[in-house]
TrEMBL record:
Name by which UniProt lists this protein: YibL family ribosome-associated protein
One Pfam family from the record: DUF2810
Lineage of the organism: Bacteria, Pseudomonadati, Pseudomonadota, Gammaproteobacteria, Vibrionales
Record NCBIfam families: PRK11020.1 (NF008244)
Length: 118
């Protein structure tokens, strides 16, 4: 299971337990209130761990890209035949501004990162 799907499942379960907690509070069932409160706390911690790992991985990838010797904007002509460009430049990594990594890097245009100028 991917981390994105796992995080979504945890969020869904959190919502479900929150609704059950609210209904248990209205009924005054203290035993269920403590049970659901504990479950919510455990799931919240688990969700936080997953989000922290995602941020860590993004930061690691950002550092790896920033450490590359060369980066520049990919022109529209190069974007039209991106496969040819990737084959001609060894080690090229192309980052689109709408991806998670692109947003994390605060890119405005499609950018290529490579160990050598291209």
């Amino acid at each position: 299971m991917s981390t994105k799907q796992e995080l979504q499942n945890i969020t869904n379960r959190l919502d479900q337990f929150q609704r059950k907690l609210d209904s248990a509070k209205t009924r005054g069932d203290q035993e269920l209130v403590t049970k659901f409160a504990d479950e919510i706390e455990k799931l919240s911690k688990k969700a936080h761990v997953i989000k922290s790992k995602q941020t860590y991985d993004l930061n690691k990838e950002r550092k790896k890209l920033k450490a590359m010797a060369f980066s520049r904007e990919i022109t529209k002509a190069e974007q039209a035949d991106i496969g040819k460009l990737k084959k001609s430049v060894k080690g090229l990594v192309v980052v689109h501004p709408m991806t998670k990594l692109g947003k994390f890097l605060e890119l405005n245009v499609m950018t290529g990162y490579a160990p050598k100028p291209f």
